[in-house]
Write a structure and sequence with these properties.
Blueprint lengths: L12 E2 L4 E2 L21 E3 L2 E2 H14 L4 E6 L5 E3 L2 E2 L6 H7 L7 E6 L7 E7 L4 H7 L5 H6 L5 E4 L3 H10 L3 E3 L12 H7 L8 E2 L2 H8 L4 H22 L6 H14 L4 E2 L4 E4 L20 E6 L1 E3 L2 E2 L2 E6 L6 H19 L9 H18 L42 E4 L2 E3 L14 E3 L2 E4 L6 E2 L8 H6 L2
Parallel strand pairs: 5-11, 9-10, 11-12
Antiparallel strand pairs: 1-2, 3-4, 5-8, 6-7, 8-9, 13-16, 14-15, 15-18, 16-17, 19-22, 20-21, 22-23
Helix pairs in contact: 8-9, 10-11
Catalytic activity: Release of any N-terminal amino acid, including proline, that is linked to proline, even from a dipeptide or tripeptide
Protein name: Xaa-Pro aminopeptidase
Enzyme class: hydrolase
Length: 465
């Protein structure tokens, strides 16, 4: 007879099958099958099952009694025909469950006044050996309950018959219709769009989750710090080399992120030589690099689905010209000042830091010959100084930049100057584009820079070669 007491304390087994999880196949890593990726107790890298449970409890606590939150997993996206893109889970769904498969629905129902008075249900794909032989392993219904800790787990095929009763009896339904896959057979889309079925009391979910997600836990910060450390070292290593093609530098960074421990790149990088840096989101990365120009790199890896965001600009030759040094130092001075304001004690918002950054750039650029003021600085600095980061590169969409920064907020600080070929600007700076960006975690009295391994001082950059 199977004796569960003989298992490792962290091991799990299925009472129905009476086999260890280590002997089963899942659609994503679990500790028993991938101990080189997950430590005991973790559901995803760095994040424990307990933390996921605490997140669901926090969401339930933020809802009124009788409230029901409904979240739909992201769909698999196809590139062409049967060729699909790597799967990326919908961020709110992932933040609450750790589940990393498509065709799933999570339902969190507030059942009482206390912190842990809630029911967590999941509707997921059944395990299917024949389909899994072709399309990869699945987690399955048992895993939703026994590993991902759903109180109740059902086949996604039963959602249409089981979910209506839960939703129709709810006092208030929290859901984001835009995140529901656009499929005529999808019950949730029919429920939220049909005049006959629409719930009389429905409200968006994302503002509630944004307030929870925007303040990062110690584990989340640790994941972002790991991604920042690996990414920063990769960018510094890239500065040591004499690149001639943007695509080669792009490939080098992607490889360095992956081989040194990141899941891979967090986003398509910008590798912009010369005046192509004046295109803020230049990502085709298919041109040549010339030794007398700058290259602007905006790149970062992710770890455990948490991202890092870094921008660095350096002379392709390894040596700054006088004009390059003057413009670069102007941006760097402002960046240092703006980073220093990312502390709770400063009582600043990202919007306020943006204003200080713009004024700082005006002052610095005037000192090196630019005829610039607050009335036209947006011609040279057209984007915001920063954004929230976390699971997404632009995290918690819809959360205001006017909120005062507090401990646990993670943001970017990225002043930039982009000088077009226009004779209203000094000729020796025309065609240069510079952005210097770090990922920062706000602490009480000082900013915690997550990306410090990416060097940015002129002397440090030149010393690499």
């Amino acid at each position: 007879m199977f004796d569960p007491s003989r298992l490792h304390p962290a091991a799990r087994y299925y009472s129905g099958a009476a086999v260890s999880a280590a002997n089963l196949k899942f659609g994503q890593p679990v500790h028993e099958t991938h101990p080189h990726i997950l430590t005991a107790g973790e559901l995803t890298p760095g994040i424990t099952a307990q933390e996921y449970a605490n997140r669901r409890a926090a969401l339930a606590s933020s809802m009124t009694e009788g409230g029901v939150a409904v979240l739909h997993a992201a769909s698999l996206r196809f590139k062409s025909g049967a060729v699909f893109h790597p799967y990326r889970q919908e961020s709110n769904f992932f933040w609450l469950t750790g589940w990393n498969e498509d065709d799933a629905v999570a339902v969190i129902e507030k059942t009482g006044p206390n912190w842990d008075d809630y029911t967590f249900r999941m509707f997921v794909k059944r395990k299917d050996p024949k389909d899994e032989q072709w399309n990869g392993y699945r987690n399955g219904i048992d895993a939703a309950r026994d590993i991902f800790n759903a109180d109740e787990a059902y086949s996604i095929d039963s959602m249409d018959s089981l979910l209506p009763e839960i939703l129709q009896s709810a006092k208030l339904v929290f859901a984001d219709v835009q995140s529901v896959p656009d499929c005529s057979k999808n019950f949730l889309r029919r429920f939220f769009s049909s005049k006959e079925l629409i719930h009389p009391a429905r409200t968006p979910l994302y503002p509630v989750i944004n307030k929870l997600r925007v303040v990062k836990s110690a584990a989340e910060v640790a994941n972002m710090r790991k991604a920042g450390q690996i990414s920063g070292r990769a960018i510094t290593e890239a500065m040591r080399h004499d690149w001639t093609k943007e695509k080669d530098l792009h490939a080098f960074l992607d490889y360095q992120f992956a081989v040194n421990g990141c899941d891979g790149p967090a986003y398509i990088p910008v590798i912009a030589g010369g005046d192509r840096a004046n295109c803020i989101h230049y990502t085709v990365n298919n041109n040549t690099l010339k030794g007398d120009e700058f290259v602007l790199v905006d790149a970062g890896g992710e770890y455990g689905t948490y991202i890092t965001d870094i921008s660095r600009t350096w002379p392709i030759s390894g040596k700054f010209t006088a004009a390059q040094r003057d413009l670069y130092e102007a941006v760097l001075k402002v960046q240092r000042t703006s980073v220093s304001l990312c502390r709770e004690s400063a009582r600043m918002s990202l919007e306020e830091i943006h204003g200080i950054t713009a004024r700082g750039l005006v002052d610095q650029l005037k000192s090196i010959g630019f005829n610039v003021s607050m009335n036209n600085i947006d011609q040279l600095f057209p984007h915001h100084v920063g954004h929230y980061i976390g699971l997404d590169v632009h995290d918690c969409p819809g959360y205001s930049r006017r909120e005062t920064l507090k401990r646990g907020h993670c943001v970017t600080i990225e002043p930039g100057v982009y000088v077009p070929f226009d004779d209203q600007w000094p000729k020796h700076f025309q065609g240069m584009g510079i952005r210097i960006e770090d990922s920062i975690c706000v602490d009480e009295d000082s900013p915690f820079t997550l990306t410090t391994e990416a060097v940015k001082e002129v002397d440090d950059i030149e010393a690499l070669r």
